[in-house]
Amino acid sequence: MASTTLLMTTTARLRDRRADVARRGTATRSVRASLVSLAGLIGGQVANQSGEEVGRVVDVVARLYGPDPYPPVTGLIIRIGRRRAFLAASAVDTVGAGHVLLRTSRVDLRDYVRRPGEVLLARDVMDHQLVDVDGVQVTRAADLYLAPLADRTVLVGVDVSLPTLLRRLGPRRWQVRPTPDRVLDWQSVAPFGEQATHGPAEVRLRASRSALHRLRPADLADILEDLGRHERQQLLGWLEPEHAADALEEMEPAELENLLREAAPEHAARLVDEMEPDEAADALRDLEPGEREALLTRMPADEAAELRALLTHREGTAGGAMTTVLVTARPEQTIAQVRAELAAQAEHRTEIDAVAVLDSEGRVTGDLPLFDLAVAEDTALVGDLVEWLAQFAPPVTVRPDSRLSEAADQLVAARASSLLVVDDAGRPLGRILADDILDALLPERGRLHFRRFLT
């Protein structure tokens, strides 16, 4: 009885699975049948209600940066003899595989004038670079797919496959046939193009940031390194300066140097100003003196003075690799007060792994790791915690002119993740982190971004 029940259950499951596969296959065929290849549409016939040819499709106009998740087609550019005219989408009845049918025999053909937010899909997007946000990579649009939605035609996907490029080289009957084997949903891409930025800034940013803000700084750095000059300047323009600066800190030094040279000086100065001090100093150190000064003079005076001070330290020394982002405390403060100061420095979380404790003269008496601060009682005094930790080891410090190899030896011996850099009087100048030492001592390693490395 049990075996019969099991057999019936298994048979039912197999039947349901076959039915589900059949439904999905039918849906897939239906979706594929509704897709229109932009590559196949270009050069296609435009006919009126009587079936008479009016002209040929030159390009498709879409409002790329509007509020719609899938950009609507606003019109066509068609060739009539030697003239190129604009045909509004309201005059189009159907857009099919390689042809367009109009609603009326009489058409008001106007010269095309680009309006804010409109993009020529064949000229500005197809064969251009774009960012696959889900796949976190830069790719090219081999074809774009249009589809009917309610009473209009919209842009729904981007084909990035090699077979599609080969299809476009074949005869006309191949060109009009979609081959959506590797298609990206339009909502998962950020397009670029010389003319793709004519929309109002607030609309353009809303459309692009919705996808790009999900990317980690290291992923954005990979994308910036792969983009062409114009495209990556557009991408930087889409990002908040703080977000862009985080990505710049992850870039290869040579690529970052090129990027800063390509950008307008005011924009480059703003980006460097948003970077962590040690990373900003490294970026400026790679520029020519005139280029460096051009950026520094465009930065706020306090930040520029701080970076100039960092640049006085030689490369390959503790002072040349340190960050000036420091959180300090006094022995009489409570642990709760120090935690509040740490919370106020949340934007610098990657640069802070300990709190320097100073005496009344500003000299270092202790260096409290964040773990010890996390487990201590709120009401405990900083001085008591420093005294308790002193029985294990004194705070480890280095001079700004110490070689990085010496700093690395001290870091390993202390089993610490950072070292304080102090002056002759023992006052803190900055902190050098373990990852900064690695970056400096192993330049041939570069900044390993695991996605790219594994790929």
TrEMBL record:
Residues 389-448 form the CBS domain. It comes from the Bacteria. The keyword Transmembrane does not apply. Keywords: CBS domain. Pfam families: CBS, MgtE_N. InterPro entries: CBS_dom, CBS_dom_sf, Mg_transptr_MgtE_intracell_dom, MgtE_N_sf, MgtE_transporter. This is CBS domain-containing protein. It comes from Kitasatospora arboriphila. The lineage of its organism: Bacteria, Bacillati, Actinomycetota, Actinomycetes, Kitasatosporales.
